[in-house]
Design goal:
This protein has two domains: about 280 residues, Glycogen Phosphorylase B (Rossmann fold, 3-Layer(aba) Sandwich), CATH 3.40.50.2000; about 210 residues, Rossmann fold. The chain contains 16 helices and 19 strands. Strand 14, helix 10 and strand 15 form a beta-alpha-beta unit. The longest helix is centred in the last third of the chain and has 21 residues. It is globular, with a radius of gyration of 23 Å. The structure holds GDP-alpha-D-glucose. The site of GDP-alpha-D-glucose has 23 residues, from strand 14, strand 15, helix 12 and helix 13.
Length: about 525
């Protein structure tokens, strides 16, 4: 169903049982030539927005809180609320009018220059001096007020990601009756790292006002608990053995048990680890379409007998794009037999073109890719195809199907959905996944070839191993990966969120660990 807006009087829209607070709007607005507004999917690469919209299918009425840039926030012509009807039902989008200055300070400076490096443990990139903390508070307060205005009595408010860290605390003051759940899409670092943030107490105090604080994997939950303990008097109220599905023996991010609840100032908080999955059914359907197969065949014809390695990610220093290209360069250097027999398609799409840190990494990637093509390329063979523009999703699925190897080696990554999309697309049960052990997904995907992006030797061996793997081993590993990705798909994640919200906050888990 094509999304459309419905006219309502600004103040008479229905209050909502589910309020999603996410910095970006669920659709982008495009102005047509006749001045009318059309809604379209966000062009920025991010798979989570459609998933969040799908939660509205389960409620009578929903609301989504986001910001929208306004040159003059007091302009009476600014449409504060729009009512959307799409395949998941009807919901209100409440837009906070933020000035370009507010957005820059809140999003690009505080969130991306100060928080993002700390969350991903890049201490040396942390830039705290330019942070305008009063602006960050102001923007978070505005999100909290908007959520409070939309929520029906006893509603659930679901807040997403670190740039809205202060929303739960403010919202608790405004609306003690609502249930608040907060989900982190990024890693959550250890106390040694997190406590570099001078605003640590304020942030954690706000998170402790939630009913549920969610993370992708047990390690991040454990880190949060240790941070909370370092800053406040908190008691733990439950502990559980981590389920086998989240234990990849010996890998860097695996935990064997985790705390499931905290008690702070008489308030119980459930701490949860629920890895985000992908829409396996939808991806499989796309992967089986005749158009996809035709495109896959074209790609394969163009490759001839060369193997295709595929690497996809946002342009970000956390994704390890340049380090990966350097590993590819070493591979071609040490293995002349592979020249002409392998191609790397490196998709690196920038979500924040005008930020210095990202422009820098983009030019580093371009420089290494250019060097590789210059050193090894011939008239007939280009070792790296670098794509800096987003590939349309249906095309991306065709590349997933055509790729012999998906090479996903972030330095740090909350989960990483690309590797799960690759597995979901491999309905033919073939293809090899090489995955960094510092991606959250590595704790689930134990049949991938895990590698350590900090080690040249580990990186180089992993890609060589993947290219040489025998067909039976490839099929065996892919079969296991496909079972894992299907078991924890996006619906399983949604069910887990619902279950957490219905549970008594901080309740003892069903599978307690024996006291030591
Ligand atoms: C954050 C966390 C966590 C990428 N290039 C293209 C394209 N994409 C799509 C992929 C995928 C999405 O973007 C990227 O998702 P990731 O999970 O890999 O990474 P982040 O953007 O960093 O997301 C991450 C995630 O939140 C969810 O919680 O997993 O750890 O950092 O869906 O397909 N899509 C299209 N063309 C591209 O060129 N169409």
């Amino acid at each position: 169903m094509t999304p459309r807006t419905i006219d309502t009087k600004d103040d008479d829209h229905q209050r909502s049982d589910l309020v999603i607070v996410y910095h970006r709007q669920p659709y982008e607005e495009v102005e047509e030539e006749d001045g009318s507004i059309r809604l379209r999917e966000n062009t920025s690469p991010n798979g989570i927005v459609p998933t969040l919209r799908s939660f509205f299918a389960d409620v009578d009425h929903g609301a989504w809180i986001a910001w929208k840039q306004a040159d003059d926030p007091s302009n009476p012509g600014f449409e504060r609320h729009i009512e959307i009807q799409d395949a998941f039902g009807r919901y209100t989008v409440s837009r906070l009018p933020l000035t370009a200055h507010q957005v820059r300070e809140f999003y690009m400076v505080t969130s991306k220059e100060a928080f993002w490096p700390i969350l991903h443990s890049f201490r040396e990139r942390y830039n705290y001096d330019p942070v305008d903390w009063p602006n960050f508070r102001e923007v978070n307060w505005a999100f909290a007020e908007a959520a409070a205005a939309e929520a029906a009595p006893g509603a659930t408010v679901w807040v997403h990601d670190y740039n809205l860290w202060l929303v739960p605390g403010y919202l608790r003051q405004l609306r003690p009756d609502v249930k608040i759940s907060f989900f982190h899409h990024t890693p959550f670092p250890s106390a040694d790292m997190f406590n570099m943030l001078p605003w640590r107490r304020e942030i954690v105090q706000s998170l402790l006002a939630c009913d549920v604080v969610g993370f992708h994997i047990p390690r991040y939950a454990a880190n949060f608990v240790s941070v909370a303990r370092s800053l406040f008097d908190v008691e733990t109220t439950g502990r559980m053995r981590v389920e086998d599905a989240l234990i990849n023996e010996g890998t860097a991010l695996t935990e064997r048990s985790m705390v499931t609840g905290l008690l702070h100032d008489g308030h119980k908080v459930t701490v949860a680890a629920t890895p985000v999955g992908v829409d396996v059914g939808y991806i499989e359907e796309c992967a089986r379409k005749p158009e996809t197969l035709a495109r896959m065949q074209e790609i394969r014809d163009e490759l001839g007998d060369a193997q295709l390695i595929l690497s996809v990610g946002r342009t970000d220093y956390t994704k390890g794009g340049a380090q990966q290209l350097e590993s590819y360069e070493r591979l071609l250097e040490s293995r002349p037999d592979l020249r002409g027999k392998v191609r790397l398609m490196h998709v690196s799409v920038s979500a924040n073109r005008n930020m210095e840190a990202y422009a820098e990494i983009q030019s580093e990637i371009e420089s290494v890719a250019g060097r590789i093509n210059g050193r090894f390329g011939t008239f007939h063979w280009q070792p790296v195809a670098l794509m800096s523009r987003a590939v349309p999703f249906d095309q991306l699925i065709a590349y997933y199907r055509a790729a012999d190897v998906a090479w996903i080696t972030p330095i740090a990554d909350g989960m990483n959905l690309v590797c799960k999309e690759y597995i979901a697309a491999r309905v033919d049960c073939d293809g090899v996944l090489v995955l960094s052990e510092f991606a959250g997904a590595a704790v689930e995907l134990d049949a991938s070839i895990t590698t350590n992006p900090f080690s040249h030797r580990a990186m180089d061996q992993a890609i060589a191993h993947a290219l040489e793997m025998a067909p039976e081993e490839r099929a065996g590993r892919m079969e296991r990966l496909r079972t894992q990705v299907a078991a924890y798909d996006i619906r399983a994640w949604g069910d887990a969120q619902r279950e957490l919200l219905e549970r008594d906050p901080g309740a003892q888990s069903k599978t307690p660990v024996q006291a030591a």
